[in-house]
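User: Show me a protein chain along with its predicted structure.
Assistant: Here is one chain, sequence first, then structure tokens.
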Amino acid sequence: MCRVDQDPAFTPDLFAFVRDLAAHNDRAWFAANKDRYEAAVREPALAFVEDVAHRLPEVSPHFVADARRTGGSLFRIHRDTRFSKDKTPYKTHVGVSFRHAHGRDVHSPVHYLHLEPGRAFLGCGIWQPDTALARRIRDAIVARPGDWRAAVGDAAFRARFALGGDALKRAPQGYPADHPLIADLRRKDFVATTPFADADVVAPAFIDDFIARCADAAPFMRFLCCALGVPY
């Protein structure tokens, strides 16, 4: 059920816990502070996901807020260290992803909330699409350059978001190096981010701010969804 009070989902305790975890990133410390993690991070994050579930249809009916304790919108705090030289066991941020309903079948755009002291942000788009999907986005930019320019040039979007991510050093194969939109065609990530101050995250109006920014990203997300053949 939707929470009816106006208390914020997140409190400064979340950022305090993440700071302490970064300073004591080991299993013994985490085990001793597991109750603190549940109270300061996991339960508030799941409450926020529940709130977003009621509000996200205002932005698009095709994105999912899943408040399950495992396998839902909230990412695990545990790092996958199998192929990493860094063997610290825990992430030093909290991640929440609102995936496209087709996301299990197709690599689709997402709304991603990143909570880290001094580095909180909302990211929208698609990160590291495979070669075939990146080509579909690039082909859409070439075929509909006016729509792309309108999407990334939308006043509300530009006021909030900045395009980012990695890019190729040269033109991707099959695209002319002198194309007017070559800087966009060289993108490896089709993502846009907007930062939050820590005070924004713990404010009662954070849910409204979050939903408003997701709505401001609509032109960009709509273009990506169309390029990948999924509804927005």
